[in-house]
Amino acid sequence: MNALEVDNLKAGYNKSEVLHGISLKVGKGQLVSLIGSNGAGKTTLMRAVSGMIRPSDGAVSLAGKPIQREAASKIVRLGMAHCPEGRRVFAPLTVEDNLLLGAYHRLPGFFGYARKAKARLDHIYALFPRLSERRGQLAGTLSGGEQQMLAIGRALMSEPTVLLLDEPSMGLAPVMVDTVFDAIQALKREGITMLLVEQFAQMALAVADYAYVIERGQLAAEGSPDALRQDPRVLEAYLG
Ligand code: ATP
């Protein structure tokens, strides 16, 4: 059974359809990348998968369970976390409070909360030592790269089995992009299933087990990274 399956998904905003029927699969423990130019619908797909917007048609299943009608908060509890484009950390809160908010829907309500939360925090701080050093600092004062680590850390606090990562490298200095990709590799070694949207197609393919190309709300190509690197259309449009 696939960790995540999307079947003929349609979604958009108001009356304008952006996704015209997208189907994809992410196997357990796989990292699948989505490539496509600006406005192709990648972010809309992530939103429709995680319940941030309601699909107009089609199905999304998480470990075989249909979730396309569930609320985003329920989808988090079922094991999917969405690290959104643009990071969206809570600027006036500390690093640690931002992280704890990410655990809100998943940790036990009272008994055992402190122990569980501490274990999760330790795990995130081991992955991103920079966040540990800055745990008491207000998130709004972090650099872009640190905010990206925080956004990923916050998503990980809910102990997801499937993580959606939307353009984690956006606007970051090259050294920070490397740090974020090192973290993505570490998460892969932990066995977290990931769906990654990434503007740098080369990097998206370098970490992926499989990839899909989206153009104007439809799939234009799919395949292993090696196969896509040799596809003349992909080469010309995204890897040139
Ligand atoms: P980018 O890399 O620029 O974010 P993308 O592939 O993620 O591109 P989307 O953000 O999904 O593309 O946008 C797809 C289409 O949906 C675009 O035409 C965009 O203008 C439109 N769109 C995105 N967000 C909204 C919104 N909140 N309301 C209305 N239209 C939107």
Model description:
- The structure is a single chain.
- The chain is of the alpha/beta class.
- It has one domain (4-239): Rossmann fold.
- 39% of the residues lie in helices and 25% in strands.
- It has helices at 42-50, 72-77, 95-103, 113-127, 129-133, 144-156, 174-190, 201-207, 225-229, 232-239; strands at residues 4-13, 16-26, 31-35, 57-62, 65-66, 80-83, 162-166, 193-197, 210-215, 218-223.
- α7 (174-190) links the parallel β7 (162-166) and β8.
- α3 (95-103) packs parallel to α6 (144-156) and α6 (144-156) packs parallel to α7.
- It is globular.
- The relative contact order is 0.18.
- The model has no long low-confidence stretch (mean pLDDT 91).
- Adenosine-5'-triphosphate is lined by residues 13, 18, 36, 38-44, 85.
What's the number of helices? 10
Mean pLDDT rating: 91
Largest sheet: 6 strands, mixed
What's the total number of strands?
10
| Rg, Å, rounded | 17 Å
Q: Give the termini separation.
A: 36 Å
Mind telling me the CATH class? Alpha Beta
CATH topology value = Rossmann fold
